[in-house]
C-alpha cells in the first residue's frame, strides 16, 4: 500500500468492464463469467487522521499488484478459499485480477446468494474466513525519509459484500469491495522542554496481560472484524523505534499502528533516552475503546532534565553573520536571529546604522529556498539539507535547525518575519515582494559535511583564504561524476548584497561543461507564491519542479531599486533576498554608495561571509597571485589551482559570473573563446560597477589541452547588476 495523505476517500462508483480481459501471452486477467472485484480504500469520515500534522487526513492508495485474499460462501459453505487477487492499477481504487487461473472465484449459479470476504495483505496460510492470521508488531521502525512507511508495513484491511447474486450483479460486472482498516492509529504529539534525542517511544498498557500487539497465533474473523488473541503470542505495548531528536517547545509527532479496544485501560507513554526509560505521560482509554480505522491523537509535555538534553551547537557563539556552515549529521544548531548581520554599528557617508537599528524581533521563520548536491540530471533530487519540520524559532529569539542522519550537502536560505505566516499563505506583489509580512532578515545555511573552514584554509603572507567559494559544498577531490562538478562552484552575489543566488549552472548539459540560458536550477522553494514552476521539461524532458528562480529576465530579474537612494535600495534588496535586482536597460541595480555596502575598511551587515571572515579585497588577491604559478585543475577541467606547497593546491572555479539579467555568460569547458574565473572583491570603482578580479585562461582552451593552457590574472570593472562568486578571507 502507498500512504499519501488520508484514510478518507470518497466511495467509488461501480466499475463496468468487458466480459474478459487478457494480459501477457493470453493469460486471462479475469476469465469470462468469473467474479470480478473492485476495491476501494475507505475510512470513517468523522475520523481524525493527520499523518502529516495538517488538517488533512491520511490517504491510502493501492499499488499495482498489491495482493488481497478472497473468500466466497454460499449458505455458509465455502466455495472459494483464500484465492489471491492483485491490483491492476495504482490509486485509491482498483480492479483486482486473478493471480492464478486455477484459483478464480466463480458464480455457483444465477440466483444463489453469495457472500464475499476479502482482506489485505494476502497470507498464503489463511484457510478459514473466520480465522485469518493477523500480526501487529510490537516494534515499528521509524524512517526519517518515509515517516509513514511503518504504518504500511503493519496495516491490515478487510472488506465484505453479502447476499450478491449473479443475476443482480450482471454478467461481466464487478463486486465493489469497500476496505476498512482493522487497526487504529495512535498519533503521539510530544512537546519537549529542551531538545532531546530519543531511541524509541512506547505506548504501554499498565495491565501486563492486555494484548496490545501480537506476533503469532492471533486471527481475525472477516465476517465480524473481531480479533481472537486467545491462542496467540501477545505483548502489552507498541513502540516506534529509531533515533530522533524531539523539538524544543514545539510538537514532534510519532505515529503507531495499534490494536483497537482496550476500553478503561490505563496506558503510559515512555521515551527511551540514552537507553533509559522515561515515563512522560499517562492516559486512560475511554469506555468506547480505540476504534478501528480511526486515529487517537494524544498530546503530552515532556519535561527534559539538563542531563537528558541534547547538546545544541550555537553557530553564532563566535559572532553573528549572514552565512553559517553546518557540517554534522543528526545535529541541532542554533543562531541568534535578534540582530541583523554581524550586529555591529557602521557609520558612513551613504550607509549608517546604530546597534539599536540592528535589533529585530522575529515572529516566525520560513525556509525560502533550498538546493542540494546533484549527481544526475534525471531525475533531479529534491532534497533539503535542513528539513522543513526541523526549522523553528525559539522563544529566546534563536533559530533552531536540525540536520538529518543522512547528511545532505547543499544550501538553504532562511528568513524571519514580523508576523506569524506559513508557507501556504505568503502573498506577493508583481515584483515578487512579500506583502502580508515584513521580511526582517535572512541567512544562508551552507551544509557541507565534514567541512572545517579553519582547518582547510590557506595562508599567503598576511592573508588567509577560505579553501572554497562561499556556498560551494564539495571539493574537486570529492567529485564522482560530471554533474557534481557544479557544486565545486559557490553561490553568486550581486554587489552590496548579503544574500546568495544559487550556483548550479543548468539542467541540460551532459557533463556540466557548457552553459545554457537556463539558470538557477534545481533550487526549490516550499512557498507556493514564489514557485516559478518547472524548467527543463519542455525541451529536454527533465523536469525540475518548484523552482525559486526562472530562466528569463522576467522570471529572474526585478527592479527593486527604482527611485531609491543607495541605503534604501540595499535595504529593499535585503527584504527580497530571493530576487535578482536589475535596473532594466542599463546594467546596474544600485546608484553610488561609495563602496560602503561591501566596505574595504570594515565588515558591514551586508558582508556575506561567516563570522571571523570577510570578503576578499583586491589587495589580498594581488598578494595571492604574486609570483604564484597556477595550473588548470585536471579533475574538473573547470577551475585552476595554485602550485606552491604553501597554498596546497588552493582551488578557484570557473563558472563564477552571472549576467545583468541573472543569465550565465562566463564561458566554461570547451570555451572556444576565453574562460574566466571571476570573483567579486570588496569596494567598487564608481556608481555603476563592481570591482572584480579574474583568472583568464588562454584562447581556445579545451579540456584536452589543459597541460598547455596559460593562465593570466587581471582586475576589471563590471556592471553591478552582474553577480559573481565570493571568496572569503580572515577578518583580522
Protein model, in words:
It contains 6 helices and 49 strands. With 732 residues, the chain is mainly β. The protein folds into 3 domains: 2-121 and 156-181, Immunoglobulin-like (Sandwich); 185-302, Immunoglobulin-like (Sandwich); 313-730, no CATH class. The strands form 16 sheets. Strands 4-8-7-6-9-12-13 form a 7-stranded mixed barrel. A 5-stranded mixed beta sheet has the order 11-20-15-22-23. Strands 25-27-32-31 form a 4-stranded mixed beta sheet, with no helix packed on it.
Give a brief description:
By secondary structure, the protein is mainly β. Helix content is 5%, strand content 34%. It has 3 domains: 2-121 and 156-181, Immunoglobulin-like; 185-302, Immunoglobulin-like; 313-730, no CATH class.
DSSP helix count?
A: 6
The total number of structural domains is: 3
Specify the overall morphology. Answer: elongated
Q: Name the structural class.
A: mainly beta
Amino acid at each position: 500500500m502507498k500512504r499519501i495523505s488520508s484514510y478518507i476517500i470518497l466511495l467509488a462508483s461501480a466499475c463496468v468492464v468487458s466480459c474478459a480481459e487478457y494480459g501477457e501471452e493470453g493469460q486471462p486477467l479475469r476469465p469470462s463469467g468469473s467474479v470480478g472485484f473492485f476495491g476501494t480504500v475507505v475510512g470513517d469520515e468523522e475520523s481524525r487522521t493527520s499523518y502529516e500534522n495538517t488538517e488533512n487526513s491520511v490517504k491510502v492508495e493501492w499499488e499495482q499488484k498489491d495482493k488481497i485474499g478472497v473468500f466466497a460462501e454460499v449458505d455458509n459453505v465455502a466455495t472459494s478459499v483464500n484465492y489471491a487477487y492483485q491490483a491492476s492499477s495504482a490509486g485509491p481504487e482498483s480492479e483486482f485480477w486473478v493471480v492464478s487461473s486455477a484459483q478464480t472465484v466463480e458464480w455457483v449459479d444465477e440466483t444463489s446468494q453469495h457472500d464475499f470476504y476479502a482482506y489485505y495483505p494476502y497470507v498464503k496460510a489463511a484457510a478459514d474466513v473466520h480465522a485469518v492470521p493477523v500480526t501487529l508488531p510490537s516494534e515499528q521502525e521509524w524512517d526519517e525519509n518515509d515517516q509513514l512507511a511503518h504504518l504500511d508495513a503493519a496495516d491490515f484491511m478487510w472488506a465484505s459484500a453479502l447476499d450478491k447474486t449473479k443475476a443482480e450483479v450482471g454478467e461481466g460486472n464487478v463486486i465493489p469491495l469497500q476496505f476498512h482498516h482493522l487497526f487504529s492509529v495512535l498519533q503521539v504529539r510530544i512537546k519537549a522542554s529542551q531538545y532531546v534525542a530519543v531511541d524509541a517511544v512506547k505506548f504501554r498498557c499498565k495491565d501486563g496481560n492486555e494484548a496490545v500487539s501480537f506476533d503469532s497465533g492471533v486471527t481475525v474473523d472477516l465476517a465480524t472484524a473481531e480479533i481472537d488473541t486467545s491462542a496467540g503470542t501477545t505483548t502489552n505495548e507498541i513502540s516506534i523505534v529509531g533515533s530522533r531528536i524531539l523539538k524544543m517547545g514545539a510538537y514532534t509527532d510519532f505515529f503507531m499502528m495499534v490494536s483497537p479496544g482496550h476500553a478503561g485501560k490505563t496506558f503510559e507513554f515512555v521515551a527511551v533516552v540514552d537507553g533509559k526509560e522515561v515515563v512522560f505521560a499517562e492516559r486512560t482509554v475511554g469506555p468506547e475503546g480505540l476504534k478501528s480505522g480511526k486515529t487517537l491523537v494524544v498530546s503530552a509535555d515532556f519535561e527534559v532534565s539538563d542531563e537528558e538534553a541534547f547538546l545544541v551547537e550555537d553557530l553564532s557563539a563566535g559572532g553573528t553573520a549572514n552565512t553559517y556552515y553546518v557540517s554534522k549529521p543528526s545535529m541541532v544548531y542554533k543562531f541568534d536571529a535578534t540582530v541583523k548581520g554581524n550586529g555591529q554599528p557602521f557609520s558612513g557617508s551613504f550607509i549608517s546604522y546604530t546597534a539599536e537599528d540592528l535589533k529585530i524581533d522575529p515572529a516566525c521563520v520560513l525556509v525560502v529556498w533550498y538546493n542540494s548536491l546533484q549527481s544526475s540530471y534525471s531525475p533531479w533530487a529534491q532534497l533539503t539539507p535542513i528539513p522543513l519540520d526541523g526549522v523553528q524559532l525559539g522563544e529566546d529569539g534563536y533559530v533552531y535547525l536540525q540536520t538529518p542522519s543522512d547528511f545532505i550537502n547543499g544550501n538553504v536560505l532562511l528568513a524571519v518575519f514580523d508576523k506569524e505566516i506559513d508557507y501556504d499563505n505568503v502573498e506577493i506583489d508583481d515584483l515578487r515582494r512579500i506583502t502580508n509580512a515584513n521580511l526582517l532578515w535572512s541567512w544562508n545555511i551552507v551544509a557541507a559535511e565534514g567541512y572545517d573552514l579553519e582547518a582547510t584554509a590557506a595562508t599567503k603572507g598576511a592573508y588567509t583564504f577560505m579553501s572554497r567559494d562561499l556556498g560551494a559544498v564539495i571539493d574537486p577531490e570529492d567529485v564522482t561524476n560530471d554533474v557534481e562538478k557544479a557544486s565545486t562552484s559557490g553561490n553568486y552575489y550581486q554587489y552590496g548584497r548579503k544574500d546568495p543566488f544559487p550556483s548550479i549552472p543548468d539542467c541540460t548539459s551532459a557533463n556540466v561543461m557548457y552553459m545554457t540560458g537556463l539558470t538557477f536550477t534545481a533550487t526549490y522553494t516550499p512557498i507556493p507564491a514564489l514557485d516559478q514552476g518547472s524548467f527543463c521539461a519542455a525541451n529536454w524532458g527533465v523536469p525540475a519542479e518548484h523552482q525559486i528562480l526562472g530562466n528569463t529576465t522576467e522570471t529572474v530579474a526585478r527592479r527593486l531599486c527604482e527611485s531609491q537612494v543607495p541605503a534604501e535600495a540595499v535595504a529593499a534588496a535585503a527584504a527580497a533576498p530571493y530576487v535578482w535586482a536589475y535596473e532594466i536597460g542599463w546594467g546596474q541595480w544600485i546608484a553610488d554608495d561609495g563602496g560602503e555596502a561591501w566596505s574595504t575598511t570594515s565588515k558591514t551587515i551586508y558582508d556575506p561571509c561567516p563570522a571571523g571572515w570577510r570578503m576578499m579585497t583586491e589587495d589580498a588577491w594581488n598578494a595571492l597571485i604574486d609570483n604564484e604559478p597556477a595550473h588548470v585543475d585536471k579533475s574538473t577541467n573547470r577551475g585552476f589551482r595554485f602550485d606552491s606547497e604553501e597554498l596546497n593546491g588552493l582551488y578557484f572555479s570557473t563558472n563564477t559570473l552571472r549576467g545583468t539579467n541573472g543569465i550565465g555568460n562566463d564561458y566554461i569547458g570547451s570555451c572556444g573563446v576565453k574562460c574566466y574565473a571571476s570573483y567579486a572583491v570588496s569596494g567598487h570603482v564608481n556608481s555603476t560597477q563592481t570591482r572584480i578580479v579574474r583568472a583568464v585562461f588562454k584562447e581556445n582552451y579545451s579540456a584536452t589541452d589543459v597541460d598547455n593552457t596559460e593562465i593570466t590574472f587581471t582586475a576589471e570593472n563590471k556592471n553591478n547588476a552582474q553577480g559573481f562568486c565570493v571568496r572569503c578571507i580572515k577578518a583580522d
